[in-house]
């Protein structure tokens, strides 16, 4: 996603909202770009992996897994990963990467998740929540499928970038959509995002029963300095994405005294 490394630009006026977010249509181009570019491969993904920490034996749901690069990175570190995505085309690429026995499901994050309560130790959601107008039902479902003490680790478009990028500026306090033209592997496609103020994000997490543990604005992987000198300098000094770690509260501690003493 070239635009964010070079903010503030305005979304191209030609971007057509009715054609937006056709991940099935540009799955190959998106996945190829995501694989090795600065923004995903040397910034967003390493940040998610770092926030997740030691994931050995953890059951992790990759919500909006796309072609599965984060799933693969977490699986390499010992996690047991399940992926869901609304795009069958993206999931086909994930299956090609992760193997025929990978646990992958077509699912819209606006709908109930096809998993039992407490099925996962962590949910990761890389760059997907900003496609949703209403985070409430989605976060409630993520909370439901997490065990007590489990974590949701999410990255989103930074609300300050989403505000600054538009001309004229939107109402910062409102949740509004905008469509911009993005280039993936040489192919230009329209993406439509829902932007919202920072407090609407934190309020949505807490309303769903999560506790905020980390809000992060990480730096890109230093390994990218030599590979992308201009982009690295730009991304290191401007606003990129915003990252959250929020926790499902652990079970209440047993007082141990009982009521019959
Ligand atoms: C920017 S891509 C990120 C993919 C992957 N998380 C990664 O970082 O490589 C966004 C992904 O979210 C998926 N997506 C968008 N809206 C969705 C929804 N409502 N439910 C499930 N997946 C959705 C898209 O199909 C796409 O694969």
What separation lies between the terminal Cα atoms?
Answer: 63 Å
Our count of domains comes out at: 1
Q: Which range does the strand content fall in?
A: 15-25%
Shape: globular
Number of contiguous helices: 9
- The CATH homologous superfamily is termed Vaccinia Virus protein VP39
Task: Provide the low-confidence segments as ranges.
Answer: 1-10, 256-261
The total count of strands amounts to 9
The CATH architecture designation is 3-Layer(aba) Sandwich
Largest beta sheet: strand ordering: 3-2-1-4-5-9-8
- The helix-strand sequence is HHEHEHEEHEHEEHEHHE
- Report the radius of gyration as a whole number of Å: 19 Å
Q: Regarding quaternary structure, how should these chains be classified?
A: single chain
CATH fold-level name: Rossmann fold
Main sheet attributes: strand count, strand direction, barrel closure: 7 strands, mixed
Structural class: alpha/beta
Nearest-integer average pLDDT: 92
Helix content class: 25-40%
- Give the class-level CATH name: Alpha Beta
Cofactors, ions and other ligands in the entry: S-adenosylmethionine
């Amino acid at each position: 996603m070239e635009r964010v490394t070079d903010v503030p630009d305005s979304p191209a006026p030609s971007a057509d909202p009715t054609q937006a977010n056709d991940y099935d249509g540009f799955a190959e181009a998106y996945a190829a770009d995501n694989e090795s570019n600065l923004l995903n491969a040397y910034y967003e993904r390493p940040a998610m992996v770092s926030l997740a920490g030691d994931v050995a034996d953890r059951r992790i749901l990759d919500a909006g897994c796309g072609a599965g690069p984060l799933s693969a990175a977490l699986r390499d570190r010992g996690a047991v990963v399940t992926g869901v995505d609304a795009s069958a085309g993206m999931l086909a690429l994930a299956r090609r990467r992760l193997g025929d026995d990978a646990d992958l499901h077509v699912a819209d994050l606006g709908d109930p998740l096809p998993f039992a309560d407490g099925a996962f130790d962590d949910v990761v959601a890389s760059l997907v929540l900003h496609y949703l107008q209403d985070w409430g039902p989605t976060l409630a479902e993520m909370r439901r499928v997490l065990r007590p003490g489990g974590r949701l680790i999410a990255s989103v478009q930074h609300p300050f970038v989403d505000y600054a990028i538009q001309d004229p500026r939107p109402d910062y306090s409102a949740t509004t959509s905008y469509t911009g033209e993005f280039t993936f592997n040489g192919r230009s496609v329209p993406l439509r995002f829902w932007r919202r103020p920072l407090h609407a994000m934190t309020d949505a997490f807490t309303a769903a029963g999560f506790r905020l543990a980390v809000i992060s604005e990480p730096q890109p992987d230093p390994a990218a300095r030599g590979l992308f000198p201009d982009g690295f300098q730009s991304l290191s000094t401007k606003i990129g994405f915003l990252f959250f770690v929020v926790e499902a509260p652990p079970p209440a501690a047993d007082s141990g005294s009982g009521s019959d003493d």
